[in-house]
Amino acid sequence: xxxxxxxxxxxxxxxxxxxxxxxxxxxxxxxxxxxxxxxxxxxxxxxxxxxxxxxxxxxxxxxxxxxxxxxxxxxxxxxxxxxxxxxxxxxxxxxxxxxxxxxxxxxxxxxxxxxxxxxxxxxxxxxxxxxxxxxxxxxxxxxxxxxxxxxxxxxxxxxxxxxxxxxxxxxxxxxxxxxxxxxxxxxxxxxxxxxxxxxxxxxxxxxxxxxxxxxxxxxxxxxxxxxxxxxxxxxxxxxxxxxxxxxxxxxxxxxxxxxxxxxxxxxxxxxxxxxxxxxxxxxxxxxxxxxxxxxxxxxxxxxxxxxxxxxxxxxxxxxxxxxxxxxxxxxxxxxxxxxxxxxxxxxxxxxxxxxxxxxxxxxxxxxxxxxxxxxxxxxxxxxxxxxxxxxxxxxxxxxxxxxxxxxxxxxxxxxxxxxxxxxxxxxxxxxxxxxxxxxxxxxxxxxxxxxxxxxxxxxxxxxxxxxxxxxxxxxxxxxxxxxxxxxxxxxxxxxxxxxxxxxxxxxxxxxxxxxxxxxxxxxxxxxxxxxxxxxxxxxxxxxxxxxxxxxxxxxxxxxxxxxxxxxxxxxxxxxxxxxxxxxxxxxxxxxxxxxxxxxxxxxxxxxxxxxxxxxxxxxxxxxxxxxxxxxxxxxxxxxxxxxxxxxxxxxxxxxxxxxxxxxxxxxxxxxxxxxxxxxxxxxxxxxxxxxxxxxxxxxxxxxxxxxx
Length: 708
Hints:
Layout: H1 6-11, E1 26-29, H2 37-53, E2 57-62, H3 75-91, E3 94-103, E4 106-108, E5 114-116, E6 124-128, E7 144-146, H4 154-159, E8 164-166, E9 173-181, H5 194-198, H6 203-210, H7 227-240, H8 244-253, H9 259-264, E10 267-274, H10 280-289, H11 307-312, E11 319-325, H12 346-352, E12 355-361, H13 369-378, E13 383-389, H14 396-407, E14 412-417, H15 424-438, E15 446-449, H16 453-459, E16 466-471, H17 480-489, E17 505-515, E18 519-528, E19 530-532, E20 538-542, E21 550-559, E22 562-564, E23 566-568, E24 572-577, H18 581-584, E25 592-594, E26 603-610, E27 623-628, E28 631-642, E29 657-659, E30 662-664, E31 670-677, E32 689-693, E33 697-705
Helix pairs in contact: 2-3, 7-8
């Protein structure tokens, strides 16, 4: 090669390691400096990909070309690049485990050209402390640094002469960074933010912040404290006058909380229901993005899934959205700090959060009522938020939603929306009409207005008798802070961690038949047990239309878009299966994934209660649409038997009568009924809660047995 760049190419033709691969957890960088916002985003995305490829760990080679040749850079350029990459790693909740500086690989030959050293022992490898900063701490006045001793033999290290790392221009250097993702929101942010890097902050400014940065040793403070150390801190707090409660709070904040714990034991699932014009999607979009609505639907467009939903403003499908909180109750901002027009992904919110509220956006229009019923039935909601448009009185759909939530025993929180510009008399009318619905015998709740934080504390623990009401506006932001504090204060109602010891049970809610590079994937909820996925993880998926189960292998799993090898009860997850094209076609919604060989059934016994309301008559051969968790199918009533309530101290089923055609059930009556599915067998077990409807919700019940 000839020309002005010939010496440069000659220098960079000295191969020190193998060439870079597009896949895997290893990345090569010549130099990282003068970052723009777009370049910073690219580097962060690239590092996140390498971390995912290495299952949370990756290696960066700085001062190396893509083909593995030495970039022949001096120490200052390589050290500055390492500092920038450490800053990006911190923004991704990752730390640098190891930082190796390598010198003396390249030397000047007798002919004046660069060449690789012949004696490998002459290569100098120095392990610098993985501290976010300039990396120049500890240099003496001669710009030299002593090498750390890595050997275990102390006597040998004493005999070995100390070698020094040079910062001269002729000391060609490269660096190896080992980066590890730390799945905890307690990791301190970097001293110099990524936005500051994009504005062109100098390398020297980062050196000052490096003194206050957290090193790897500081992570020891995040480990679980022993009881002895906890009691010692309590005693010290008593001496210093600090309350024991504050000491316990500090202990809690110094505890490592993994993403798995956050998404299972500290995940509150809240169903959001209401009439079609109540503003459900707008409220969820405002809460998750932390941006107010413009009054024309800007917030709802950020969470809607389909184009026709955005155009019509009506939600037609069920979707879930994560709202994260820190220890202090401060919400996690859903917008990316650097990309203001982009939403944070679920994995970013999960890693930053101490507590998560999963908001399930359900349809409000009457023609999508069956979708809403299925969402409540299969959503395992801890609580329900019922939205009411303050400018209009509650409609019949509001009454259906209240009855639906009470049928499943879900505590209710009522939110009056659009109070900005709402006339006082209209708001008073809406509240009085809703109070009548809440106090009706079918619901049996007493409205309780939330005005202050003390009202939130008062209502906690009484949600089965009270219905807290909050007034909000997504345009002005009025009442949103109270609503966030209310959501953060809600206690966990469903204890899924108590079901870990039970056999694994995964409820399939959606299917993806052909994901590129993965294959068939199902998403759903882990109802019980735990599962370690991998090449030897055999599971049964079904039942199919003929009642059989498919035996396959669960290759991999994702929880909140985070690749994991372990899923446990209480998590919403995705599982990838090894299925051929023919078997993939048999997958459908409503299936289950089990580890033990199961059986499907077409008949089941249930104890039901017909809800009071509009008149309906239930007798033998009555057909209804049955919802049992994620299962939904038409079923016939084959046998009906009156329940003897007197033995239980319950009022008699005086509305159940027997005529020439058999027993007739009317609103308010209880009975044992044997149902038969109309289409195909399903997997159900005793103890599951069911709901049946024929257009409107008619009754609820519990499955008591499966006929042999």
